[in-house]
């Protein structure tokens, strides 16, 4: 007989012998946890039940059980406190009550075991053409962790929802009935954990703590670049998890092959599963994101304002939310809905950020930095290959991003002929279409220019 | 059972044990007080299956025995008796009481039905001065809030190490921590989370008493015991269920870097916040503007329905100009818990945690989160 069947049969018999109140008080939340040969271990919710059952009902229980199963000769009681079941609903109710005004200790929002923040879910992740592949991959991984795409590597610019996506995968897996162990770590946490482990000589303990994890999520893995010891340790952790078919999910601001100072063996492993990028959201998606955020905050804003925000705040989702928040605060203090004019005034800061505008100096600076040159090298009259290409890239960007005229660019580069600039522009444009490495380079440079 | 007892002693004892006796309809035996005898002591026991109180009273025991009678009734009845010697006798589970010219019989229950109070086998007992313990507990007791989703922070966290007790409590908006010195150094480190309700009962029961409080614990229970002054024998034992779970690592919350640090007179600050609270509106918001140049703290509040208010308090300030909004209740709770005429009020950053501490007393701290500034 199964343990729980046996216990149900016992309870049915006990009911006949004792009063209803006593039965409800002392037998609530009891169960058989273990049964070996002659001994049965019964779990009870508290010390009172334990005392009572073992002092008052021991004989009756043993007799009843012995009649059902002659091998049982001894009973034991252990206390196993009721774990409080947290329903999602309750959670959301509580947070709703608190509204957004009173601030909480941030540390308390985060799930302690997984370090995941429960606010990131698939349900509030807005999917558009720019991220649907990443979304689909994330969903596939959450349904079949360890087997779909391993490792899953998601990259893209600042504030485009990488963290949201990978935490949503984590949350979904953690909520699953299959009870997978999920661990989320920002890469900085990983590095500092490794450093502490090295210092206190507890590397083995650190590795052991990661060994039983089913899903490891590391955010912003690019920060591991240049930290050789950390890379080495992470490499071993990665390998041991990968061999056991444990899911690994990583995010970064660039693809593995563009992360500088990354050891080759680690680079190849990072790119060994599925590498997907998340790019900038299009207008419709931005609008959809705004609407989702509004719904979360339980507020309404007129359509024309939303359209204005969506068409003017383009660079990242976090800024969209920031723009929205500043309108909401206006709404709260003044108790009326801002009209388009007010919205424009309030959002000036978001739309014309001084850091956001690309300029000539910045392009030159970023290009030379990216190719490890001094700024003045770009202007040298030389045909050395390592200078020619960066120079062409700089010309291309000046034309493309700032809409400089070809002669103006030519003047900037020491009075070259404007046809040289046209040639450079066309060459880079064509090559970037054919050569994905160059496209990637251009993207990174552009991102750095715009992120200041 | 037959005993003779002074009315005051019985009344006092009953008033303590009846505290946790509620109206339990599912198990009526819990409405009773269990009365037993031991040597020359009368023992009173009550429980709500979470907490149990056991109390010894020195009495003249004529005949041993035990009985269970309704606690509230016995307590109320005893209070009404004249201040004389009472003779109590058990007859067929009922209790007959004689006092001067009064004879009464109270119907009881079968004492064998009364729950058995679990014994606590603690490895080690910690000792602390009961007055200090009550005062300290009083400074953190009101902080926790019942939380279904996070039961572990709905209680008070006790952590014992070397010769120190740390008591901490939080409701995720604010946090209080109190340190008390133990009378003797302990060998190991211990910690547990005590639910708020029994913690309050312990505080109320022990308040005004003197001596050493013994604290012991087992896996799911903690024991608080006060012994008789004259003999080495327990006088009151309170056992309570503990909250399972791991208390969050709250030390991470306590800020260590500050933008602005203020030293200010506690009473004045508290009074001004109280005054401003009348104008705080629905969200209980009171603004605190710290101005280092003028050496003053401006407290203001406004509400579209009531009006607005502003006041200034002189203070010693280091750091930058900063404005932070608070729920005045949380700020006042902290200030009221602080004993001392001057307080340190340290602001980490806008919308960051703020730290309140008494000047010259490192044993207490209170961290409070502001309201999102509008």
Helix-strand layout with pairing:
The complex is a heterodimer of chains A (452) and B (374).
Chain A: H1 3-17, H2 20-27, E1 31-36, E2 39-44, H3 47-56, H4 58-68, E3 74-79, H5 88-98, H6 132-143, E4 152-156, H7 162-175, E5 182-186, H8 187-199, H9 203-211, E6 215-219, H10 228-243, E7 247-252, H11 264-270, E8 274-278, H12 283-297, H13 303-312, H14 317-334, H15 340-346, H16 348-351, H17 360-370, H18 385-402, H19 406-412, H20 418-434, H21 436-451
Helix pairs in contact in A: 1-4, 3-4, 6-7, 8-9, 8-10, 12-13, 12-14, 17-18, 17-21, 18-20, 19-20, 20-21
Chain B: E1 2-6, H1 7-17, E2 32-38, E3 41-47, E4 51-58, E5 60-63, E6 67-70, H2 71-80, E7 85-91, E8 94-99, E9 102-106, E10 126-129, H3 130-138, E11 155-161, E12 164-170, E13 174-181, E14 190-195, H4 196-206, E15 212-217, E16 221-227, E17 234-241, E18 260-265, H5 266-277, E19 285-291, E20 296-303, E21 307-314, E22 316-319, E23 322-327, H6 328-337, E24 342-347, E25 354-358, E26 364-368
Antiparallel strand pairs in B: 1-5, 1-7, 2-3, 2-6, 3-4, 4-17, 7-8, 8-9, 10-15, 11-12, 11-14, 12-13, 13-26, 15-16, 16-17, 18-22, 18-24, 19-20, 19-23, 20-21, 24-25, 25-26
Helix pairs in contact in B: 1-2, 3-4, 5-6
